[in-house]
Amino acid sequence: MGYRRRNILSLSEADREVVETIFDEFSFLGPVGRAKGLHLFAPEFFCPWDTKIYKGYGFAGDKTSYWQFLRQTQAQIERLSGCFGDENPIKAIDRFNFWHFTRDRDEK
């Protein structure tokens, strides 16, 4: 629950083992359920994803991929610092990912 008080910008290599262990603890949910569940527990620290998103970034959906996805999202948020206003940056990146990877491209 300590992650509830943190945001993704505080993510460091020291978190890797714990994050990967937590991700594995929820293996019964599958990779999408795990990421979305963790996001519900700590919405400013853990990033949601779906299959099209993690595959779109070239990830496999395992604990190592989730760690890399968190680090990549952290880097995106750092590069876009000041662009999010009052919005949770993870939610903004997730919305971008949805529009870029998940939504039906034939939608009008």
List the helices and strands and how they pair.
Blueprint (H helix, E strand, L loop, with lengths): L15 H10 L4 H12 L9 H6 L6 H17 L9 H14 L6
Report the major sheet.
Answer: none
What is the averaged pLDDT score?
A: 93
Distance between the termini: 41 Å
The percent range for helix content is 40-55%
Describe this protein with a few key phrases.
single chain, 108 residues, 55% helix, globular
Briefly say what this structure is.
With 108 residues, this protein is mainly alpha-helical.
Question: Explain this structure to me?
Answer:
This protein is mostly helical. It has one domain (about 1-100). It has helices at about 15-25, 30-40, 50-55, 65-80, 90-100. Helix 1 (about 15-25) crosses helix 4 (about 65-80). The protein is globular. The model has no long low-confidence stretch (mean pLDDT about 95).
